[in-house]
Specification:
218 residues, alpha/beta, 4 strands, 11% strand, globular
């Protein structure tokens, strides 16, 4: 970071109902100009009809509710400020349905449509809004999930490259697909949904290995 710049760290569980209040108490005295929402994860896996409602709610609280709360709070500040940007990190998982992580994928789809609307609302006030869509990225979470990054033809991004790309394309909202994954996003938006979903499920099984049939989150 630049010399003389202070960093204020706030440790908070974004699924807690008091999260926004905790964050705002520590930051409302700052002139926030850039909000980056990168806290999203698939925290629960399993067949939906057999799922634990608490586990499902945790996915929704982290990936949807916290995003809405933070965008409302800081988006209002940025609107009054007349400039600034909001980056919401998304996932290619949100472009089609998945077995076993269907709620996570649906949450990511929700966020993309939400960001598109927010982009329209804040653009007249000089605030840039973009969803930065990630494909397979070499994060610790993906490594812990056991994904095979070495498969032929698999497009793998590095976190630093994705972050750099996102900052370069703040003005290119409402959606920017990072890591050269534009063709994948277009393909997953096709009209033959059954073929696309079944094909992706098989690819996911291969990436995770035979011992894990769940789909990856990114």
């Amino acid at each position: 970071r630049p010399k003389g710049v202070q960093v204020r760290t706030v440790s908070v569980d974004l699924t807690d109902v008091t999260a926004l209040a905790t964050i705002s108490r520590q930051t409302d005295d700052l002139d926030i100009g850039l909000l980056i929402l990168n806290a999203g994860a698939n925290t629960y896996r399993g067949e939906f009809v057999e799922s634990d409602p608490v586990g499902v709610q945790t996915i929704l609280d982290l990936n949807i509710i916290s995003t809405l709360n933070l965008c409302r709070h800081y988006g209002k500040h940025l609107k009054a400020r007349g400039r600034g940007a909001i980056v919401v990190v998304g996932s290619l998982a949100g472009y089609l349905g998945h077995a076993n992580i269907g709620i996570y994928a649906a949450a990511k789809a929700f966020v993309r449509i939400f960001v598109e609307g927010l982009w329209l609302e804040l653009e007249p006030f000089g605030v840039q809004v973009v969803e930065l869509v990630l494909g397979l990225t070499r994060t610790p979470a993906m490594e812990r999930a056991g994904l095979r990054f070495d498969l032929p033809g698999v497009q793998v991004s590095e976190p630093a490259d994705v972050a750099r790309e996102g900052l370069l394309h703040l003005a290119d909202g409402p959606v920017w697909v990072a890591g050269g994954n534009d063709a994948t996003a277009r393909r997953r938006s096709g009209s033959n949904r059954a073929e696309l979903i079944r094909g992706n499920q098989q690819t996911s099984r291969t990436m995770l290995g035979a011992e894990n049939a769940s789909s990856p989150g990114e």
